[in-house]
Amino acid sequence: MINVLADRYLYNISAYLPPKVNILLYDPAEGLPDLSNADGLLIRTVNPINAETISDIPDSLSFIGTGSSGTDHVDQPFLRANNIAFADAAGCNALSVAEYVAVGLLLWAEQTGSELQQLKVGIVGKGYVGTEINKLLASLGLTTVCYDPPKEEQEASFSSASKEELLTSDILTFHTPLNTVGQYPTYHWLDEEVLADYSFRLVINTARGGVVDEQALLEAFQNGTVDYFILDVWEDEPHIRKRSAANAFLRTPHIAGYSVQAKEKASKLVTDALLNHFGLKRASDPARPDPKIFTQSVDRYNGLSDLLTVLHPIRTYQQKLARIINEHWDDRGPRFNKLRASFPLRQEFNNIRLPQSYADRFPVLEKLGFRLIS
């Protein structure tokens, strides 16, 4: 029997572990639990792992996994120095983030009267998420440019756009890890210097807050060199900045990658790594959710934006975040994290069934991945 402590908000986490694992769920809002008897620890991004947060490492602890694609909250050299194996859930949320970006673009285009097919989208970072976004935007008929010099060095089959070519894009969307050191740091990649020389119709950040210099972005917005921006991640997260939120076209609480399917993948990936580490096998996978079926008449919707905000809760997240900003500013950090953890997860588009009449009226729906029923 091994003892595993797990963030209670990791999706259905207990169902992915066999009886030989004694799992204890903890509340991340209270910080990390007592690790004295733990063999393994499963976390989310809200709990940093470093020499300060787990200064007293028990001899029993040999594995830490994060149910997230990003890993900047984990000091991996520290774990290696202490012989602790580490695993993440890289790629688990790629499709969910791609759908968020596509919805954001479509809402923005309809509200501003922009023709997306006449604009070029620069994708910064072509890992799991950037690749999925490139594929989805291509299906929508958009022109894309992908920038990822490290990937070009590692993969002979990939050729990155130059930085100069990227920065001639009308729209920038960021999908990189947050790196402060190394040959290709991403901290404040979009900064005052870049924004002084280039202008953009729209900037989207769903990667990590520090990838974009929020102060420089706000100044560019006020100067008119950035027309609009969408933020799902924040430089001082969870203590978001009021001016950034107030001026964003869309503002959401770091949920672009949140869906039932993304969370399923995350739980499976991180528990697979844990079980492999301890030489255990999974009994069986939990049952997958049934598709969500819409039967209402498409005529009830005034337009594509009206429908999209029913199919994707992006506006609902925005409204709930606005309430935190307007009514609970002093304790916005805990409330921000609680909103992320407790809001009901959405279904990815391929798990939603729509009548054929929806696609007849809005052909883009089939390109977004929605399944049709006659």
Chart the SSEs and their pairings.
Blueprint: E1 2-7, E2 21-26, E3 40-43, E4 63-66, H1 76-81, E5 85-87, H2 94-112, E6 120-124, H3 128-139, E7 143-147, H4 149-154, H5 163-166, E8 171-174, H6 192-197, E9 200-205, H7 214-223, E10 226-231, H8 242-247, E11 250-251, H9 260-278, E12 292-293, H10 304-311, H11 314-327, H12 332-342, E13 352-355, H13 356-361, H14 364-368, E14 371-373
Helix pairs in contact: 2-3, 11-12
Which key features would you list for this structure?
374 residues, alpha/beta, Rossmann fold, Ribosomal Protein S8, Chain: A, domain 1, 3 domains, six-stranded parallel beta sheet, five-stranded parallel beta sheet, 14 helices, 14 strands, 16% strand, globular
Task: Kindly describe this structure.
- With 374 residues, the chain is an alpha/beta fold.
- The chain folds into 3 domains: 2-88 and 259-278, 3-Layer(aba) Sandwich (Rossmann fold); 94-251, Rossmann fold (3-Layer(aba) Sandwich), CATH 3.40.50; 292-373, Ribosomal Protein S8, Chain: A, domain 1 (2-Layer Sandwich).
- 35% of the residues lie in helices and 16% in strands.
- Helix 2 (94-112) crosses helix 3 (128-139).
- The chain is globular.
- It starts with a strand and ends with a strand.
- 42% of the residues are buried.
- The model has no long low-confidence stretch (mean pLDDT 95).
